[in-house]
Amino acid sequence: MGGNYNTNPNPNPTAPAAAPAIGFPSQPVVAATQLQRHNQNHAWDQIQLVIESWNPHSPLCQFRHYFYNLVDPAQVGLYTCPPDHDPALWEQAQLENPDPTCLVPALAVGFEDLRKRMDQQETEATAHITKLDEISEKLTQLRHLHQVETLARLAEFRRRNQEHAYRIQRLVKMVQVLRFRGQTLRPEEEVVRVRLEAMLNELTRPGQLQRRSQDLWTQTQTGLAQRRGQGNGGRVCATQHGNIRYEVASDVDLETCVNLLDNYQAGLTQFTGIVQQHLVDTKSLCDKFRPS
């Protein structure tokens, strides 16, 4: 009775116990699962960031740009940074303001605000074009008025001015006549009177103009003959008129001579009229200056 019984299930007390068949997963499996979940969260955050970047109502929207509005210079100080604006961006816009005296920053967020601003600019441009058309039409009317009325009135005023100047000259002449009435001519005035009478007699002498014309014709023919003698060639015609021989090299030269003589004749006629008028005035002055 009294035998020795071993109650330890492991007959070898130094051997390790066997691992259980079931329990928690190993450490590598847990790390892989956490990495997968982290990647999924990171991708979702990136997608959400892209969505917020395109959302004009989000503070993370990347489509933000400051334009500038023209305001009254007295009201520039009333415009401050709004509460929903980034103060740093506002300060940067103020630093980049091309004209702080009359321009204030205006934030445009997204393409909708950009479209609204483009529409406003198109409206302003249309208004400017309309105003320019009105100004152009007004200028056309003023130009027509200037051509039709102003120039005509200016010509009329110029004519009146010349008429008044002529009348003033006549008045001055009459005043001088009345002033020197009954006085004898001065020596230099007597010399002028004698010279004018001599010139008139020279021009009104019978045959004077004809002799002068013949002299001019002779001089012209002499010059043509000299040119012909220098080898210019051409057709030569000769006619005898009294003791004067006329020669022309061509019909063109003949026409030139005729035109030249006509011009001389017109000049002499005009000069004769002027001298006759001066002589009449001189005689009138002499008659008035002679003592009665």
TrEMBL record:
<feature type="compositionally biased region" description="Low complexity">
    <location>
        <begin position="1"/>
        <end position="21"/>
    </location>
</feature>
<keyword id="KW-0813">Transport</keyword>
<dbReference type="GO" id="GO:0006999">
    <property type="term" value="P:nuclear pore organization"/>
</dbReference>
<dbReference type="GO" id="GO:0017056">
    <property type="term" value="F:structural constituent of nuclear pore"/>
</dbReference>
<dbReference type="GO" id="GO:0006607">
    <property type="term" value="P:NLS-bearing protein import into nucleus"/>
</dbReference>
<dbReference type="GO" id="GO:0036228">
    <property type="term" value="P:protein localization to nuclear inner membrane"/>
</dbReference>
<feature type="domain" description="Nucleoporin Nup54 alpha-helical">
    <location>
        <begin position="82"/>
        <end position="219"/>
    </location>
</feature>
<protein>
    <submittedName>
        <fullName>Nucleoporin complex subunit 54-domain-containing protein</fullName>
    </submittedName>
</protein>
<dbReference type="InterPro" id="IPR025712">
    <property type="entry name" value="Nup54_alpha-helical_dom"/>
</dbReference>
<keyword id="KW-0539">Nucleus</keyword>
<dbReference type="InterPro" id="IPR024864">
    <property type="entry name" value="Nup54/Nup57/Nup44"/>
</dbReference>
<dbReference type="GO" id="GO:0044613">
    <property type="term" value="C:nuclear pore central transport channel"/>
</dbReference>
<dbReference type="Pfam" id="PF13874">
    <property type="entry name" value="Nup54"/>
</dbReference>
<feature type="region of interest" description="Disordered">
    <location>
        <begin position="1"/>
        <end position="22"/>
    </location>
</feature>
